[in-house]
Amino acid sequence: MSSTEESGRQPRGALALSLLALLGVVLFAGFIALGTWQVYRLAWKRDLIARVDARVHAPPTDAPGPAQWAGVNAQTAEYLHVRLQGHFLSDRRTLVWAATELGSGYWVLLPLQQADGSIVLVNRGFVPTDWCGLKNACATAPVGDVTVTGLLRLSEPAVTFRHNDPARDSWYTRDVAAIAQTRGLQHVAPYFVDEDAAPGTLDAGKPAWPQGGLTVVNFPNNHLSYLITWYVLALMVLGAGVYVVRDERRLRARR
After folding, report:
1. Which of 8-12, 133-137, 201-205 has the lowest mean pLDDT?
2. Confidence (pLDDT) at 203
3. Are residues 85 and 196 in the same domain?
4. Does residue 160 lie within any of the structural domains?
5. Which residue range is the domain that position 25 belongs to?
6. pLDDT at 181 over 90
7. How does DSSP assign the chain, residue by residue?
8. In total, how many domains does the chain have?
9. 182 assigned to some structural domain
């Protein structure tokens, strides 16, 4: 600003100052509130990551039975390392579209019927799009009683842009209730289990299909950067307020 323009400036009026003060207070309080909220979110996220990490690496325990199904939720059970015993209903297989570190393909979901008659959907793992099992030429599960270990996962709702189409047997999410209804399953747990990776390979060193153990346990934690951003913005508003006050004092002193 030139000296001529500076000398011609007049102090702001009472209305303008009041509006600036109100805007500054609102912005400052809003940024402080958002920053403080991120502080709580940061603590929550760190607790979640620690809790899930402990569950994933813990020895497997019995999966929740029918008497416990009502209490299964993300807080109490998701990513628990669980154990199931029963036999697979291989004729009720469901293929769910998947994108993994091994490429695009399908999750192979099979019902596992336990001794009490209850059923748990088990994600046996990933298969590529050209897997021979798509034509029922390859076995998807062992025959007879088996013990399965894996991570408990909650049912996945349909995605926004790619809806499950049971009539066409086209699946994009592991929606337990919808799959159970389509396959005519009764007494089904409200969760599914991602089976652990099984040792061994096929001929020529190729991965054994289905390939389990591909659960992605990743919780983005950007709350620290968010809270710093909000607090810095609050300091900038405070700095702008100090500048306006000093500028007004200087203009009034000159008059």
Report:
1. 201-205
2. 47
3. yes
4. yes
5. 15-47+221-254
6. yes
7. --HHHHHH--PPPHHHHHHHHHHHHHHHHHHHHHHHHHHHHHHHHHHHHHHHHHHHTSPPEEPP-GGGGGG--TTTTTT-EEEEEEEE-GGG-EEEEEEETTEEEEEEEEEEE-TTS-EEEEEEEEEETT-GGGGT-S--S-SSEEEEEEEEEEPPPPPSSS--BGGGTB-SS--HHHHHHHTT--SEEEEEEEEPPPS-B-GGGPBPSSB-----------HHHHHHHHHHHHHHHHHHHHHHHHHHHHHHHH-
8. 2
9. yes
Residue 166 lies in a domain: yes
Residue 176 has pLDDT above 90, yes or no: yes
- According to the model, what pLDDT value does residue 16 have? 79
Task: Tell me: do 87 and 140 sit in the same domain.
Answer: yes
pLDDT confidence of residue 3:
54
Q: Is 215 inside any structural domain?
A: no
* Same-domain pairing of 199 and 230: no
